[in-house]
């Protein structure tokens, strides 16, 4: 095998030549193997003349031998030079694919993975922020859950005037003055007094009405109307409409439930049990926020201290994919305001730097995982699924996990995240990590400062308690 190398940086190109005699010998050997069992009309198995074997099987065998020889030669040159391709090598046969009279020549082009500098994990000094859930934080979380708890309306059974906050059920009829026929009619129209979601002034006109009472009044309609009537603004704008409204029922929005009632709604035995559950959820949420912050600090440190060239092909692919996302976001008006006005060349350079950082960090983590034989276990994947679906309502969690497991690209993303986290944990276990206790507010401020654009922490919600709240 003759070889000519033409390489620059991580981009390698080899021109490989195999003598025609070598290919011919391999073809003849393969034909002889096939001939031992070949069956052709008029010949016993294993007795077919070689001339007929070449005529019948020669072209397909030669193609098979060329493919095998190219693969074996490529593997040999990679091994001899201790090169690991970043992507599948591109192979192009330039000569010798015909009748076997000329040498087989082909080129192999690829980007090699770079040599990753050794990292002294013990030299990495990092700070982990921890939050202790105090009674004040727990109280705020309980108040949030109380405020967000559903409050079903109940019929008003006493004979009393309607008041702000009541839900009034109406039979409604509206006509444009001076014209015949109703233009606004409705049965069981629901109106929450005090919200002013209908015609301006309508709530005030109905305030104090009792069940069974009918009121009539006339409004000059404004130029723009609220959502229920917005599509008819052109018809009503500036015109006087006479309304007749009959109150058929009143409903009172139930007051905020007590903490004990809320606890039972979520299936807790008592308020203390629910508080313990909420405290554990808060501690888990703060721990995840703290870990994500620590992970970002670690990745920043690795990117700054472990510098090397990345494979050009990988950079082009990642840059193109990232830039397409930017263009899609720009078309939808979803870019940050300062990015929307920035010139394209500058913005493209910035996102190319982001792509390069992503690739570099990916290569660093992959090398650490490879050299330290870090692999995933079923438990690691289960944990990743639990974390990824922690905000999914309990009733839907099993369905969401099944969806992840049955969808290849989603499952691969879960595995990639799980492996990355396991490698990060491996590094953190060997780094110099100190701890500092902070308040939840301090963690949130620090977390926002360290976060990449667009990241935010979702607030605690009832779905995380493991049971959907029930009305009543």
Q: Layout of helices and strands, plus pairs?
A:
Layout: E1 2-5, E2 11-18, H1 20-35, H2 50-80, E3 90-95, E4 104-111, E5 125-131, H3 135-148, E6 153-155, E7 167-176, E8 184-192, H4 202-206, E9 214-220, H5 233-236, E10 240-253, H6 259-265, H7 271-305, H8 312-331, H9 337-340, H10 344-371, H11 378-388, H12 394-406, H13 408-428, E11 432-438, H14 440-450
Parallel strand pairs: 5-11
Antiparallel strand pairs: 1-2, 2-4, 3-4, 6-10, 7-8, 7-10, 9-10
Structure, described:
By secondary structure, the protein is of the alpha+beta class. Helix content is 47%, strand content 18%. The chain has helices at 20-35, 50-80, 135-148, 202-206, 233-236, 259-265, 271-305, 312-331, 337-340, 344-371, 378-388, 394-406, 408-428, 440-450; strands at residues 2-5, 11-18, 90-95, 104-111, 125-131, 153-155, 167-176, 184-192, 214-220, 240-253, 432-438. Strands 6, 7, 8, 9 and 10 form a five-stranded antiparallel sheet that branches. β7 (167-176) and β8 form a beta hairpin. The longest helix has 35 residues, at 271-305. The chain is elongated and about 110 Å long.
Number of DSSP strand runs: 11
- 3D shape: elongated
Report the CATH architecture of the largest domain. Orthogonal Bundle
CATH topology of the largest domain, by name, is Trigger factor, domain 2
Largest sheet: 5 strands, antiparallel
Low-confidence stretches: 448-472
Order of helices and strands: EEHHEEEHEEEHEHEHHHHHHHHEH
Q: Number of folding domains?
A: 3
Q: What's the gist of this structure?
A:
With 472 residues, the protein is α+β, with helices and mostly antiparallel strands. It has 14 helices and eleven strands.
């Amino acid at each position: 095998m003759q070889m000519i190398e033409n390489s620059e940086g991580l981009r390698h190109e080899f021109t490989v030549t195999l003598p025609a005699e070598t290919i011919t010998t391999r073809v003849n050997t393969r034909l002889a193997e096939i001939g031992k069992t070949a069956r052709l009309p008029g010949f016993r198995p294993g007795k077919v003349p070689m001339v007929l074997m070449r005529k019948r099987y020669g072209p397909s065998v030669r193609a098979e031998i060329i493919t095998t020889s190219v693969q074996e030669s490529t593997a040999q040159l990679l091994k001899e030079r201790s090169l690991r391709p970043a992507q599948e090598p591109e192979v192009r046969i330039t000569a010798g694919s015909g009748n076997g009279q000329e040498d087989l020549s082909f080129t192999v082009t690829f980007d090699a993975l770079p040599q990753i500098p050794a990292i002294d994990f013990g030299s990495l000094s990092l700070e982990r922020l921890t939050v202790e859930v105090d009674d004040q934080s727990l109280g705020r979380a309980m108040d949030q859950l109380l405020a967000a708890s559903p409050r079903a309306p109940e019929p008003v059974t006493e004979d009393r005037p309607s008041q702000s906050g009541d839900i009034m059920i109406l039979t409604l009829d509206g006509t444009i003055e001076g014209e015949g026929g109703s233009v606004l009619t409705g049965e069981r129209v629901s109106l929450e007094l005090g919200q002013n979601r209908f015609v301006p002034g309508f709530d005030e006109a109905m305030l104090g009405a009792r069940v069974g009472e009918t009121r009539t009044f006339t409004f000059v309609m404004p130029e723009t109307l609220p959502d229920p009537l917005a599509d008819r603004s052109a018809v009503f704008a500036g015109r006087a409409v006479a309304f007749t409204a009959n109150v058929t029922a009143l409903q009172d929005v139930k007051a905020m439930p007590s903490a004990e009632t809320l606890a039972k709604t979520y299936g807790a035995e008592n308020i203390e049990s629910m508080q313990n559950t909420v405290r554990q959820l808060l501690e888990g949420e703060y721990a995840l926020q703290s870990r994500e912050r620590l992970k970002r600090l670690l990745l920043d440190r690795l990117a700054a201290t472990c510098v090397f060239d990345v494979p050009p092909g990988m950079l082009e692919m990642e840059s193109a994919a990232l830039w397409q996302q930017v263009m899609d976001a720009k078309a939808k008006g979803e870019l940050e305001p300062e990015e929307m006005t920035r010139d394209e060349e500058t913005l493209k350079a910035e996102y190319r730097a982001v792509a390069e950082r992503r690739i570099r960090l990916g290569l660093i983590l992959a090398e650490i995982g490879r050299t330290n034989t870090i692999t995933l276990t079923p438990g690691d994947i289960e944990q990743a699924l639990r974390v990824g679906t922690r905000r999914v309502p309990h009733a839907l969690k099993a369905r969401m996990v099944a969806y992840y497991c049955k969808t290849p690209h989603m499952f691969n993303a879960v595995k990639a995240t799980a492996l990355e986290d396991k490698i990060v944990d491996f590094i953190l276990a060997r780094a110099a990590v100190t701890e500092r206790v902070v308040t939840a507010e301090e963690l949130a401020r620090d977390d926002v400062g360290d976060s990449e654009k667009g990241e935010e922490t979702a607030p605690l919600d009832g779905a995380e308690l493991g049971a959907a709240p029930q009305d009543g």
